[in-house]
Amino acid sequence: MKFKDKKAILFDLDGTLIDSGPDLALAINHMLTSIGRDEVSSEIIHSWVGNGASILVQRGLSGQTEIDPNLDPELLEKALAIFLEFYAENLCVGTVTYPNVRSTLKILKAKGYRLAIITNKPFDFVQPILDGLDLNGLFESILGGDSLDKRKPDPLPLHYTCEKLGVTVDECVMVGDSKNDILAAHAANMQSIGLTYGYNYGEDINEHNPDISFDDFADMIAVFSEVNQYTLAE
User: Fold this and answer.
1) Is residue 26 part of a domain?
2) Residues 118 and 80 placed together within one structural domain of the fold
3) Fewer CB within 10 Å, N- or C-terminus of the chain?
4) What CA–CA distance (Å, rounded) separates 189 from 75?
5) How many domains does the chain have?
6) Is 3 within the bounds of a domain?
């Protein structure tokens, strides 16, 4: 298939553009040991990623994906503060871009596509990571999980970004590795691309019916029309 008449491509961050799992695991385990708990394997922590910092910490305290409804609010507040402080100082220790991400983004931007990030990660962490991984200057709009009243899988961030960029839903594509990305796209009536790597709670991204899915980030270049390259000459 080809995505035609598109002007903007909206990207998730964690699990889509970057593998932040090592640093998130480092921060969660620092939090756990700081409050006298045992560390958890990186693989388990990776399965908790995707709904923002607070949910990740709640899962860490619960020891599972399903959050314990009886978590002590004071403990949660303390644990979240420990996590956020440590993570802010260790954003790019083990975090890397996935293969072909940087080169593909540059190609898409050179073709005239407008690029944006919609992530559930707290906003303040996003730009330092982009700077640290040489992804700065590529995106016209960045939304964090705390930028608006609602986050993915709610469609609000997608609609807000469309309005900010001055484009319609039909002129955009949402790209992500998680069901939150695809469900948000469905709710916004926007087409979507699923990526089979990343963090999706152990589920196959195709179960959530993206318009198309890829194993390699670079594969998406072929599905975008060449028409937009002419915007560079306007």
Assistant:
1) yes
2) no
3) C
4) 40
5) 2
6) no
pLDDT in tens, 31-68: 999 999 999 999 999 889 878 899 999 999 999 999 99
Polymer length of the chain: 234
pLDDT tens digit sequence for 61-110: 999 999 999 999 999 999 999 999 999 999 999 999 999 999 999 999 99
Q: Look up 12 and say whether it is catalytic.
A: yes
Q: Are 30 and 82 in contact (CB under 8 A)?
A: yes
Q: Can you tell me the distance from the alpha carbon of 128 to that of 42, in angstroms, rounded to the nearest whole number?
A: 23
Q: Residue 225 domain-assigned? A: yes
pTM of this structure: 0.90
Which residues form the domain of 61? Answer: 21-88
CA distance 224 to 108: 9
Please tell me the distance from the alpha carbon of residue 84 to that of residue 3, in angstroms, as a whole number.
39
Q: How far apart are CA 122 and CA 120, in angstroms?
A: 6
On whether both 142 and 169 belong to a single domain, the answer is yes
Could you tell me if 208 and 140 lie in one domain? yes
